[in-house]
Amino acid sequence: MDIHELRVGTPGTILPPFENVIKHARKAEEQGYDSAWWPDHLMGWIPESIWTPDIAEIAARQKSPHTYFESLTTIAAVACHTSRLLMGTSVTECFRRHPAMLAQAALTLDHISKGRFILGIGAGEYENIEPYGINYEKPASRLEEALTLIRLLWESEGKVNYDGAFWRLRDAVLTLEPYREGRYPPIWVAAHGKRTMRIAGRLGDGWFPTYMPLQNYKEGLRIVQDAAREAGRSPEEITPAMWCYVVIDKEAEECKRVLASPMIKAFALTLPYQAYEEAGYQHPLGYKSVPFADYVPTRYSRERVLAALEKVPVEVCERYILNGTPDDIIKALEDYVKVGLKHVVLWNITFFGDLKKVRSSFNAMAKVLEYIKG
């Protein structure tokens, strides 16, 4: 496989007015994107304490960093106005959504989209769970059991009985068939730790981590594929995918400047402590901080966030955010394709660091897409 066979996705629009969601999805389809993705968030990663125009220029146009349309209903609407675009959650979880309801919703979207829905799922983020009165306990085990249950409900004929650590089913049924006989919606698992990577290999149809250094991706894919083999599956059944934060400009030096901006550093606060340790640093939010499991942005004062941002090394941003000129981005993606990447989702966050870069950064992204699509 070469880079011209790489499938390319883009984030879907998440903000009102809803007409823009449809318009931008149709435009993405016309431009040649293969997929569009919607986060299943109640809360965003940027603390509102720094969502002020002096730090986040975009705050002058967008009132809150925590505004999201609900993902599943949004995808249903987009599916009715597109014909080719794949659509997925990036990603949902099984704390707020019961596995049986996820199983039914995925099949419903499979029908509405005529087979174009992908169920992106992970272990969940603390910020979307604990503040809403739900205990964030044993996320990996919960994910594993949820995937087991979803597949059991899809594939069983008749009543389903199940005794698990988190859910019990008694005489349960789910008789809705997939849109195409025998072809259930693909499940892509957003796995970053070794345990969840193995879960992806055993129970998933795709591996969907956020951007990581090339060697880390190569090693992670090996874990996923080895787990698939151990489960009696072919590694070829697993789609190697990746979600990428992207900072792009026609000048490499401009990318370095944007990477050093407070808003881009705020994205880097969501990385686990291991990402900082690899680069020789400690996490600004705490020695063993794993933000997916312990970070609630609404609880951080402006002073504490600003102090943390001062401690985010630009080297960490460079390492965990895909960045550079269009040629740099293309070369990097070619390297990932060589180790197995088949589907990439590119989220242009350049304008968060410098709002004046909106037009130029999206023009640069268009060049990347045009090259990949030949």
Account of the 3D structure:
With about 375 residues, this protein is an alpha/beta fold. Helix content is about 40%, strand content about 15%. It is built from 15 helices and eleven strands. It has an eight-stranded parallel β-barrel with strand order 1-2-3-4-7-8-9-11, surrounded by six helices. Strands 5-6 form a two-stranded antiparallel sheet. The longest helix is centred in the middle third of the chain and has 17 residues.
Describe the structure concisely for a colleague:
The chain is α/β, with parallel strands linked by helices. The chain is 41% helix and 14% strand.
SSE pattern: EHEHEHEHEEEHEHEHHHHHHEHEHH
What share of residues are in beta strands?
5-15%
- The general outline is globular
Helix vs. strand class? alpha/beta
Low-confidence stretches: none
As a whole number of angstroms, the C-alpha radius of gyration is 20 Å
Indicate the topology.
Blueprint: E1 7-11, H1 18-31, E2 35-38, H2 71-79, E3 86-89, H3 99-112, E4 117-121, H4 139-155, E5 160-163, E6 168-172, E7 187-189, H5 194-203, E8 206-207, H6 214-230, E9 239-248, H7 252-259, H8 262-268, H9 273-278, H10 291-294, H11 302-310, H12 314-320, E10 322-324, H13 326-338, E11 343-348, H14 350-353, H15 358-372
Parallel strand pairs: 1-2, 1-11, 2-3, 3-4, 4-7, 7-8, 8-9, 9-10, 9-11
Antiparallel strand pairs: 5-6
Helix pairs in contact: 3-4, 4-5, 5-6, 13-15
Structure characteristics:
single chain, 374 residues, alpha/beta, eight-stranded parallel β-barrel, 14% strand, globular
